[in-house]
Design brief:
Blueprint: H1 18-86, H2 93-106, E1 110-116, E2 122-127, H3 145-157, E3 161-162, E4 166-169, E5 175-187, E6 190-200, H4 201-211, E7 217-222, E8 228-232, E9 242-249, E10 252-260, H5 271-317, E11 321-326, E12 331-334, H6 336-342, H7 346-349, H8 363-376, H9 380-385, E13 387-392, E14 398-409, E15 415-424, H10 426-485, H11 490-522, E16 529-533, H12 534-552, E17 555-559, E18 566-570, H13 571-590, E19 600-609, E20 612-618, H14 626-629, H15 647-657, E21 662-666, E22 677-684
Parallel strand pairs: 17-19
Antiparallel strand pairs: 1-2, 1-6, 3-5, 4-5, 5-6, 7-8, 7-10, 9-10, 11-12, 11-15, 13-14, 14-15, 16-18, 19-20, 20-22, 21-22
Helix pairs in contact: 1-4, 1-5, 10-11, 11-12, 12-13, 13-15
This protein binds adenosine-5'-triphosphate (ATP) and magnesium ion (MG).
Residues 580, 583-584, 643, 647 line the site of magnesium ion (MG).
Amino acid sequence: MNPPSVSTASPPAEPQAEAPRGRRGVRWLLWGALVALLLVAQSLLVGLTLSYEEARAQDRADAVAAAAAGELRRMVQRSLQSAQSLTWNDPPPTQWRYDAQEMLRQRHEFLHMELRDTDRRLVVAADTPFRQPVFGVMARSELEIEMHAVCATARRVAAPLFSRSYFVPQAGGLGLEVIDLCLPLDRSGQPSGYMVATLSLSQLLEDATNTIAASDHELSLVEADGTRLVRAGLHRGAGVYFATRLVDLPGNSLQLRADAAQGRPGLIPNLTLALVVGLSLLLLGLVVLLARDVRRRSLAETALAEALAFRRAMEDSLVTGLRARDVRGRITYVNPAFCAMVGFHASELIGSNPPPYWPPERIDEYRQRQTDRLKFARDPALQREGFETQFMRRNGERFPVMIYEAPLLDRVGHHAGWMSTVLDVSAQRRIEELSRQQQERLQATARLATVGEMASLLSHELNQPLAAIASYATGSLNLVAEAEQEPATAAETVGMLHQALERIAEQAERAGRVIKSVHAFVRRRERSREAITADLLIEAVLPLVRLQARKSGTRIDVDCPSPAPRVWVDRTMVEQVLLNLTRNGIQAMEAETTPLEQRVLSLRVARVHQRWVRFEVEDRGPGIPAEVAARLFTPFFTTRAEGMGLGLSLCRTVIEQHGGALDFGPANPGSATAPGTVFRFTLPAPDPARPGLPPGPDDPA
Ligand SMILES: Nc1ncnc2c1ncn2[C@@H]1O[C@H](COP(=O)(O)OP(=O)(O)OP(=O)(O)O)[C@@H](O)[C@H]1O
Ligand SMILES: [Mg+2]
């Protein structure tokens, strides 16, 4: 388990409200810059890719043009050499014609060959066997201008030369672009004629194109003004990437143009470009996802920070002590209230076992209890109940605490320790003690008041036995004096003396009983509950009740079943309740409203439930008016001049302390003159299954 935060000091939290707003602004700025950078980088990449593509296409066109030009030059050179080979040993015309026909069969670029005399008149001619004679549609005689021009120049320079190209119409409206090669012939140093070969430009170009693999380019021969003469290649040139090369021939030069079939690089069909664009989009998508993730994270962070702040504020404001322990009983967390309660700093408590707030003399006992509790602490009943124990403050002062413990579960629901709520109950205990003392003082005061009021009655009552005792004593003294003078009557005197002394003893005993009952009542006794029969309780108060009843001529009527039910009570307290209620009843009947013969006070006892015994005190007084009834149990409420108003409030306290209930009502609701009042209260009966033990929990009275 990760121990929870143990810091109990709260950091200042004021500037936190402004900080997130500023940080958010910076974060947006950063994101904006990142996206802009990405866009610029991607555009540059696309631009560079495009220009690279273009440069590559242009380079390729240049290379193709150069290669084709070179090849063309070589072909022309070879054609020239072939033509020269025909004139090498100056063959007679028939032989030359035979050789020329052989040459025409081998080399396709030659279309027509002729031997001419020094005046350039035709001697003999041969045509290629692969096609119709080239000068079939238009006679050679009509197309000799170029030939004459080049041959004249060739004679002058004494070297073979190529003519300018010219167009020869063919059957079906077609035509051929051709070029003449003129070789001046000499015989023993004297000009002897010319050999003229007509070459197909398109065949030359095609042969050159076939040797260099340039299927994706269109090759053409053009004139200086750009007019195209012949073309070769499978594809048409797009006119975007092209290159021209000059092919120098002896006496003439041709311009070769290579034109790539490929147009300007499109954005989509280009694979490299598609890759770059695809990757860019992917990158952009990733950035968006990243941004979303960052946003989610920052939201979660904010929520977490708020939850933490809330937790801290809550912990700091709690007045209840909180303490967490791990499975081995070591403290892992305490809140400020707990530290304040025991007077130790959190750092002194975290990790301690035994903790410093255990009183040293009880460490063994507490350790045992901890082991037991940690074993059974998962029992929900135990958690609800809690338990009371004693802790020690730093200054050594012991104080009572109430502890409630609950198991602590970690993220995955594993039992990781215990969380305890600790309440300092010393103040509560002090208040309870104070209230108990006050209650006792109040009861003592009430008892004294009762006794004080009775004192006059008591003296009157004691007067009777004392007067009797005095007169018996005087009589006895007289008898003794008579016996001394007349010894004969001594025996009779002894008998009379015996009787008189018996009377004295009787009266003395009666006086003693009165005093004893008052004494027993007033004497402050330990509060203790015992099982006692109801008739004993009544008998104990009866002498005092009778004492008061006699004054107003009230009859006492006791109705108690036999055997009398037993009750589980504090005897003195219940006797006081009986006394107070009977006294109130007698006092109510002292008023003139109740005729003398009707003055009866009834005391009744009945078992109303297996666990409850009911007592009733009924009088024939004037009853209780509603306005008095409303305040009857209020302490110090009285309608009597000499009353203190404590009797009934005391009675209710005592009865309720026993778990019973006290109420009242009219005794004879029908009677207008003397409706009377009956006070009823219930007291618990001891458990018959466990006599001598307090009654178990049961339904209320
Ligand atoms: N049986 C009764 N019949 C009529 N009135 C009664 C009866 N019992 C009590 N009271 C009324 O209730 C009032 C309060 O009774 P309570 O016993 O508390 O005080 P008290 O009798 O006046 O004084 P003390 O403290 O001496 O008992 C009485 O003053 C009286 O007016
Ligand atoms: Mg009273």
